[in-house]
Amino acid sequence: MPKRTLKSLLLSLAVITVFSVTTHAADTIKVGILHSLSGTMAISETALKETALMTIADINAKGGVMGKKLEPVVVDPASNWPLFAEKSRQLLSKDKVAVVFGCWTSVSRKSVLPVFKELNGLLFYPVQYEGEELEKNVFYTGAAPNQQAIPAVEYLMSKDGGTAKRFVLLGTDYVYPRTTNKILRAFLKSKGVAEADIMEEYTPFGHSDYQTIIAKIKKFAGTGKRTCVISTINGDSNVPFYKELGNAGLKATDVPVVAFSVGEEELRGVDTKPLVGHLAAWNYFMSVKNPQNTAFISMYKAWAKKQKLPNAAKVVTNDPMEATYIGIHMWKQAVEKAKSTDVDKVIAAMAGQTVKAPSGFTVTMDKKNHHLHKPVFIGEVRADGQFNVVWKTSGPVKAQPWSPFIPGNSSKKDEPM
Amino acid sequence: MIKRMFSFFLLAAALLGTTGPAWSGRAVSPGIIETLAGEDSDAKIEAINRLVRDMPDQALPVLTAMADDSLSIADGRLVIMDGDTATDAVSGETLDPAPDNPEAITVNNRVRSKIAECLSALNLFSKDRDARMTSAADLSENPAPESLSIIEKALSAEKDSEITVKLHVARNKILLAASDPTLRIKAARALADNPTPSTRQLLAGLLLKNGDDFMEPDPDVQAAAAESLRSIDRQLAVGDTLGQIFTGLSLGSLLLLTAMGLAITYGVMGVINMAHGEFLMIGAYAAFAVQSVFRSRFPEYQDAYLLAALPAGFLAAALTGMILERTVIRFLYGRPLETLLATWGLSLILIQAVRTLFGAQNVEVANPAWMSGGVAVLPNLILPWNRIVIIGFSIAVLAAMWAILNLTRLGLFVRAVTQNRAMSGCVGVLTGRVDTLAFGLGAGIAGIGGVALSQVSNVGPDMGQNYIIDSFMVVVLGGVGQLAGAVWAALGLGVVSKFLEGWAGAVIAKILVLVFVIVFIQKRPQGMFALKGRTVESGS
Predict the structure, then answer these.
(1) Cβ atoms A71, A30 nearer than 8 A
(2) Chain A residue with minimal CA distance to B247?
(3) Which residue among A85, B208, B223, B224 is the one 20 to 30 A from A412 at the CA level?
(4) Does A204 touch chain B (CB under 8 A)?
(5) Which pLDDT tens digit goes with each residue over B492-521?
(6) For the segment B312-332, what is each residue's pLDDT rounded down to a tens digit?
(7) Smallest Cα distance from A244 to chain B, Å
(8) Are B506 and A212 inside 8 Å of each other by CB?
């Protein structure tokens, strides 16, 4: 008898679960979140997962999208590039998500691209990257090279930036740094910088011993011309790099380092006092003052406290987090405009969407090229790990995914094929 | 430029005392405040010049605060913010209550260099010897042409010989741009005695071509500069080579620390221990845990946490090791393939356990203050303290381990059991217990290595995976069962890979080292030092 009750109990439980799942699924929209929560990229990507969850919770609290609640599906691709493709296939074909917010490194984006094209999924990619890509299934809410790398180098060559004449291009060995440096090399050549005044160096992912490289930089800098370092180092390698930079006494007034993948979040684990004056170029800094940003920061701080994130009292916001926030809101607006979560209809509705961004500017999705029009900021590291904005554009800049500095790009169309 | 020179002339005049100190107490004019808070760097530099010229007494605190990013503007006054307390920058009185919404004055690198320049000039006449020394050293690195008269004035008043040397360097650097070629030649020759990268840079700058002409028009000066440059290059080359050897030794000492534990568990005991990297990781996390305890309980002794972390790291890893030995590994002795798989499984379990306990993200382990920064041995050779400490530490651990294996009863037992288990058992050695203790010792040493690693690299659940290959490489290359072999292999690999890295880049260097090890092992499978023992296995 007891056995039978147990059986029937289990059976009814199962029925209830199945039933509740089906009714549940009917009035929610599933969205995928694809960020590394472990491995070398976790230092950067974990905060993006939190931002996405926060934004989704906020949208749900305000009534959801078309009256339906958003249901986040979080997966961990563990900084493992093939795993990114597997997990995105799982999100699209098993979980049937309407949209995926995710990826940081370009190598992970390249790994998931075929999956999104094959299954006609929709990916919002929130990080600055090297360009050279324009896919129908992807919206790029980070910066293209002309919205980050090129202005930063122009600044270093200007009087305020220190009139740099010699350039060290230092990066992690994968597609983003290699392509960015290819563009920068062509750009520098067009400005009359000689081949001998450019040094290119790469390190593997997770590299932790930067002694030799810093010694090389010092030597390269000692030739009578102002030298600067352009860093495309990604992930947790940045911590030992900046530690070594501080210990070796390489000051920003001698050899400034401008970084494209280092923000407030990456500097959290570093003593920033020896690093004052080193630079970063982004489309957003936490230190920017405006009402949208104040609201964004306090929202994230409250979220961190509620979720009991480690060091919740000291959490920071950064550019890719802002881009994630913008992306989710734009997708929501596009869905409401299209009155459907159908991928093709949403893609059509995305053109021309605008969001009042925490950067203080209204950013617009380009009508054709799937990239945002964003402002550019250049900031110097402060002793407290925040950035002082020392230069910015007067307004949003249109993205050029096909950089004119790469031969053959002029004939490419500024819209997905 | 003319304007700048004029202002510096006035700065000099102010400092020389020709203008009296009648300015003290005068309020900073609103014009200066507005430009200091503005966006335009040119205007800001001009305002700094005016400040120094008009009010040298107040300029010092204002510029010092500006350099520290603590200068703000509130209610039309310059305020120095220190946490929540505000001080009026001009009068020096504390403002109570502190003004609301002080607006911080931001400076960029260009303005910051300017401020540093002015501060050096202002501090040259300080009563404090260290302050004078610092500013003389700053000036000797990067002197502004306009500060020549101040430097000469300071030279005539300065008694301290070290400071005088620095000031002469600064003076000669400025005179390189003098209009009189004989002065330029003299300066170029004198600078040969100052073999620093900044001097090299300056002299090399003279020999650069601007279009078809050299930056330095006079051929005699060119020759003098070229000669000094050669002499400096010779002296700098020494520093470069020493620097490369040092980085190699520092990498080698890290490899040694990470491999030493494996030299016992794999080298002496013969367990193919794939979980070795995880013992390193446990040690590093122990350092993190001890640091957290110190931060919350004994904030005043924070810098000493590392000393407490060493025994903690040892114990945590040794205990884990002994438990694993008792429960899993001891049943697999003599079955290398199963050991390999089992320890690999254990490593995955340990990684996941730590991930669950501490989170998947890296944790922050800070260098104590005494391990930050570096010591300048030569002008172009700065040795970071954390690396020096780790080299010394690895020597200490090596000595301790040698002593344990060769001087203690436990060491004797370990050697006896690994050489002839049956015979040791017969004469009354508790072989099972010795195995457990030996494995615990190896794991504990790995834990200590992990504490050292936490000071130079990232601490995360997967960190051990980065070191397991290197550790096996060291032990196999050195010759299994050999401590001395491991030492030579670690230092050799460190120095070789650093020289390769300097020559071919980090990515290629890693590949070349692996290729080298593969070739070496093929030619000499027993490693660098073959064990010439009478172990039971080798006899059979």
Answers:
(1) yes
(2) A211
(3) A85
(4) yes
(5) 999 998 888 888 888 888 889 999 988 988
(6) 999 999 999 999 999 998 898
(7) 8
(8) yes
